[in-house]
Amino acid sequence: MAHEFDVIDTFFKPLSSVASADEIGIGDDGAVLSCQAGKQLVVVTDTLIEGVHFPVETSACDIAWKALAVNLSDLAAMGATPAFYSLALSLPSEKNNQAWLEMFAGGLKQLANLYNIPLIGGDTTRSDRLTITITAQGWVESGHAILRKGAKPGDLIYVSGVLGEGGLGLKAVQQHWDKASYASAIQQLNKPTPQVTLGYYLKGLATSAIDVSDGLLADLKHILSSSQVGAWVDVKSVPVSNCMQTYIQQSNDWSLPLIAGDDYELCFTIHPDNQITIHELAEELEISLTEIGQIVTGEGGIQLKNTPQGQTSLQSLGFAHF
Amino acid sequence: MAHEFDVIDTFFKPLSSVASADEIGIGDDGAVLSCQAGKQLVVVTDTLIEGVHFPVETSACDIAWKALAVNLSDLAAMGATPAFYSLALSLPSEKNNQAWLEMFAGGLKQLANLYNIPLIGGDTTRSDRLTITITAQGWVESGHAILRKGAKPGDLIYVSGVLGEGGLGLKAVQQHWDKASYASAIQQLNKPTPQVTLGYYLKGLATSAIDVSDGLLADLKHILSSSQVGAWVDVKSVPVSNCMQTYIQQSNDWSLPLIAGDDYELCFTIHPDNQITIHELAEELEISLTEIGQIVTGEGGIQLKNTPQGQTSLQSLGFAHF
Question: Which sites bind substrate (chains A, B) (predicted)?
Fold first, then answer.
């Protein structure tokens, strides 16, 4: 591979621009960052491996965007404002070239620029298989991070956007469906948009939140376990795209919006008194926020309402995630 | 593999114990950490890949120790006090078992307990090849991090401990030498001790510092480039073990202490006025600190003095690292 230090200087150092003169980005043993009074640091880490977390044919630009996006999505779920990130890149020799690295750095830059966050360091190594680990960090007012443990019986369950798109995009890519017909789903798979702004505004409003990375029901289950409550979800109210509606009608497979991962929307709970505020927030941010169910007493279980064709058990969907 | 969440709950959550009630370790979308007034955050990231950064036969305990140690060594070089770390573990199926994971978690615990630092999160994924990325974070008084750029002409160059041991250990393992005779070198390769305490006390004393991970000359070169100075190094004064002396006599290869990596000692510079203080510090900490050369004007070059057999060029050592 091109020498590690050349790769860093050429492609990654330009992404590193720290805020003040007494801070250090790339170029020393570590980065030095100033803290903000009254803030807590939120730290998240996610690894993407070629062929496991994204199809091998994904473009370098999209891989980089997604690697950062999935981390920013975790920050969003906690209501944190993204501050900086580090990158551990394990690079196979066939990707260690100007064109690939330029596109990869370009993908990072595209998303990082939206939030004005610098790359502050990391490590570049050789590997058989492309592996990207990003640790992203953000700030939240002390004691104000949105946690999974705050859901209370009676709270309403909401999700942002539409669900199942990432899973539909993966099917489209894997099964070589017509790309144009599934463009938005493939876009969602390869270049998801983290709900950072929504997360920021949910602080003090949501009683709990999580991002939908492993599938709605699996992720909701984490909220329920942490909060020691149960829930019901109205399957008919789970928001889906027109494309997904067509797919469900044709395939009779209605599981994707419930169990497919890679959506990176937020699932959150609110006290019923805040329903109007949530609708106003949706209008203000010009995003869709949909009520899909409610928290109930009793630990951990999810009851599905309005399941198609009289099916009620998750097992009948072939779903054994938990 | 055992389910990711089971692995986390069983092996890694016990390593996560944050300091105060309003902090979060493992178990949410991210960790939430409180900041300290007047402190800056130092962030370092290092990846270790099986077969690249450690021999395949290395024990799970030693792999974990080393993965954390190389990061703490970077924090030490900046004078930072370790605070917490996150772990991205890509695990092949043959290592996803109780015995391996228990030993791996045990190795992390052994070293983390020395500094009372919690594992605050991360990601566990499947992979063909064992890959470990740790991001470690520490605190340093604002503006007091030791940087690479502070070396001035006339400053004396010091190193801690003895050099080349990691490289000698690697040779011993790769060439199946008698393990008992090279025990301390193999120990240095597999289970290096980061110089955290030394780094802490060098703040305000060292004008620059770096850890010796890529070899003394390569790492010293980073100090020289950042500080825009040159240096001479007295080859005879570079501290080596008895074992290394024997190896050099037998092999006539005197390059290891200068160019072998994996030592994780500190190389630092001080103003000559602080020479006595450094000797007092060495006595107090009961470690060896050895003067090996001096910073001079002129950019980036290293002149070697007292090279054996009249050899003076790095190239004659087969060394083309820079």
Answer: 53, 262, 319
* Tokens at A114, concatenated: 């939206």
Evaluate whether B8 touches B26 at the Cβ level (below 8 Å): yes
Q: ipTM of this model?
A: 0.89
Q: Where does B148-310 sit in CATH, by number?
A: 3.90.650.10
Interface check A20 vs B, CB under 8 A: no
Residue A189, SS3? helix
Say if the Cβ atoms of A40 and B39 lie within 8 Å. Answer: no
**Token representation of residue B113:** 């307990």
Each residue's pLDDT tens digit, B18-39: 777 788 888 888 999 999 889 9
For B:130-149, CB contacts with A below 8 A are 131, 133, 135, 137-138, 140, 142-143, 145, 147-149
Low-confidence spans in chain A with pLDDT less than 50: 312, 318, 320-322
Helix (H) or strand (E) holding B237: none
Instruction: Give the model confidence (pLDDT) of B81-121 as tens digits.
Output: 999 999 999 999 999 899 999 999 999 999 999 999 999 99
Closest partner CB to B33 (pick from A43, A45, A77): A43
Of A162, A135, A147, A250, residue with least CA distance to B123 = A135
Domain ranges of chain B: 4-141, 148-310
CB A113 within 8 A of CB A6: no
Beta-carbon contacts of B194 under 8 Å, excluding residues fewer than 6 positions away, are B69, B70, B72, B73, B75, B76, B211, B264
Q: What is the CATH number of domain A148-317?
A: 3.90.650.10
Residue in A with minimal Cα distance to B34? A40
Q: Searching chain A, which residue's CA lies closest to the CA of residue B4? A: A321
Selected residues 206-235 of chain A with any CB under 8 Å from a CB in chain B? 209-211, 226
Of A24, A39, A131, the CB nearest to B90: A131
Distance from CA of B70 to the nearest CA of A (A): 11
Q: Which CATH number fits domain B4-141: 3.40.50.300, 1.10.110.30, 2.170.150.70, 3.30.1330.10?
A: 3.30.1330.10
**pLDDT tens, residue by residue, B175-194:** 999 889 999 999 999 999 99
